[in-house]
């Protein structure tokens, strides 16, 4: 493999400083391939969203090696970063060996990026164990991203982000960090916001430590949007949606198949970890019907029971069902955004449900839960609610004694809603006996999958409004092979 060229970018206006201010990332790993990402920015929070970069097209070299010192380079090449994509770079590296650890880096005009670590997935037939961490809801203004650093310190094989990677809001008086720019509405706004998030050293470390699988929820665009329906009437919403999608693609380690086309972006996709696990990554925003009964938490909302209501859309539901039907994985894992299990939020005989979660789309949820019951082991991963939860998914959501068809693990937020407290939420746990754990602290979930069991450790931080909090395990649960329930470890 040739060494770096000696004069990369010759003939172009030289850059005055190192442009690798946003770090590096990898994602969407296959057995023989992985996506590498970086984005050049001299002034990351420039209000143009273009990172203070010149208009010129800039050659960027990349290398992949089997060792951290790059003595054994196995792949390399040059790509061009241009202003059309905010000088972001996506490299789909092929020809790699399955189940291997690799290191990668970028260079331009003599400036060198940080080094990243990535992995390819094991080959078909492999039952190699997997350590995976997942997180959601990281509001820059509401706290420090220490949870990302603690995830990186676990050095997992894979990281999942289940949505609300960034928030659209302008900074507010209670924020502990200043958010750059106004509420995000334009492409320049979204590019600037993503760039500010990527300047965070804890987030950079997490991206550089492991490959990521990402899906969005609402705040990457705006709160509680549903397909083409904004939170509040807005004739410019579709332009806003297209801008948000473009910036999301530019700033995430996604394959070309996810490149947006106007207001559309195919984000649901599937990944196999050998024969041990299959990840079905869902999009529960782009195809959903508007939230029932005016959104929020509602009692006796008949609209939510309409059998035609959908949170996935017809095509994505068919794709989920086909994936389950043909799966030969030991563990089938839905990586998605909002609460899947039924969750009664109202004390007493009346039932109140969140219309933003799957409870607002009852028939769609019940069909997928029934299909989940036919795979060997079904696991649903969830974000959104800024609390840790764990529980069993029931065949009949209204019958606590009905069979369990899978388990659900809900990750709290990285920072959103601040430090949290030690409340026990005993009332909701009593109303929902299939839910076994609740914790109102920030953090993430660390999981370990093997042929025999899945273990989930709910990691929590005592505070996020000041940096560098320690991490502790609040609770651990295990689901054994062919036993669709959680028990304390």
From TrEMBL:
Identification of the protein by name: Alkaline phosphatase D
Domain of life: Bacteria
PhoD-like phosphatase metallophosphatase domain mapped to chain residues: 133-458
CDD domains from the UniProt entry: MPP_PhoD
Chain ranges of the Phospholipase D N-terminal domain: 22-120
């Amino acid at each position: 493999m040739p060494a770096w060229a000696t004069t990369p970018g010759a003939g172009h206006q030289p850059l005055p400083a190192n442009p690798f201010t946003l770090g590096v990332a990898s994602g969407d790993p296959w057995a023989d391939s992985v996506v590498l990402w970086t984005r050049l920015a001299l002034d990351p929070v420039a209000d143009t969203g273009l990172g203070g970069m010149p208009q010129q097209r800039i050659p960027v070299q990349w290398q992949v090696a089997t060792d951290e010192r790059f003595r054994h380079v196995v792949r390399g090449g040059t790509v061009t970063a241009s202003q059309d994509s905010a000088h972001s770079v996506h490299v789909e590296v092929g020809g790699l060996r399955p189940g291997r650890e690799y290191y990668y880096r970028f260079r331009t005009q003599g400036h060198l990026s940080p080094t990243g670590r990535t992995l390819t997935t094991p080959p078909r037939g492999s039952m190699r164990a997997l350590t995976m961490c997942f997180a959601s809801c990281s509001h820059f203004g509401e706290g420090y991203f220490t949870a990302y650093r603690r995830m990186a310190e676990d050095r997992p094989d894979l990281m999942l982000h289940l949505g609300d990677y960034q928030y659209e809001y302008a900074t507010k008086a209670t924020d502990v960090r200043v958010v750059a720019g106004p509420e995000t509405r334009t492409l320049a706004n979204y590019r600037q916001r993503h760039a500010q998030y990527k300047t965070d050293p804890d987030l950079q470390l997490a991206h550089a430590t492991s490959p990521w699988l990402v899906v969005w929820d609402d705040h990457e665009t705006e709160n509680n949007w549903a397909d083409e329906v904004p939170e509040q009437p807005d004739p410019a919403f579709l332009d806003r949606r297209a801008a948000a999608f473009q910036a999301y693609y530019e700033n995430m380690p996604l394959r070309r198949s996810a490149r947006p086309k106007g207001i559309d972006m195919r984000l649901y996709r599937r990944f196999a970890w050998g024969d041990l696990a299959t990840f079905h990554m869902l999009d529960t925003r782009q195809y959903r019907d508007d939230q029932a009964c005016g959104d929020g938490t509602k009692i006796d909302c008949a609209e939510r029971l309409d059998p035609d209501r959908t949170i996935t859309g017809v095509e994505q539901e068919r794709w989920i069902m086909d994936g389950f039907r043909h799966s030969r994985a030991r563990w089938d894992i839905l990586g998605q955004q909002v609460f899947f299990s039924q969750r009664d939020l109202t004390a007493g005989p009346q039932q109140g449900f969140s219309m933003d979660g799957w409870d607002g789309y009852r028939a769609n949820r019940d069909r997928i839960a029934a299909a989940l019951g036919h795979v060997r082991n079904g696991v649903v991963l969830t974000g959104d609610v800024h609390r840790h939860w764990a529980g069993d998914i029931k065949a009949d959501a209204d019958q606590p004694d009905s069979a369990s068809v899978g388990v659900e693990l809900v990750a709290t937020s990285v920072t959103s809603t601040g430090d949290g407290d030690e409340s026990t939420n005993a009332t909701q746990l009593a109303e929902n006996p299939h839910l076994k754990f609740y914790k109102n602290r920030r953090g993430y979930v660390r999981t370990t999958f093997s042929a025999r069991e899945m273990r989930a450790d709910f990691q929590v931080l005592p505070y996020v409004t000041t940096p560098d909090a320690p991490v502790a395990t609040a609770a651990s649960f295990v689901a054994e092979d062919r036993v669709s329930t959680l028990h304390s470890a």
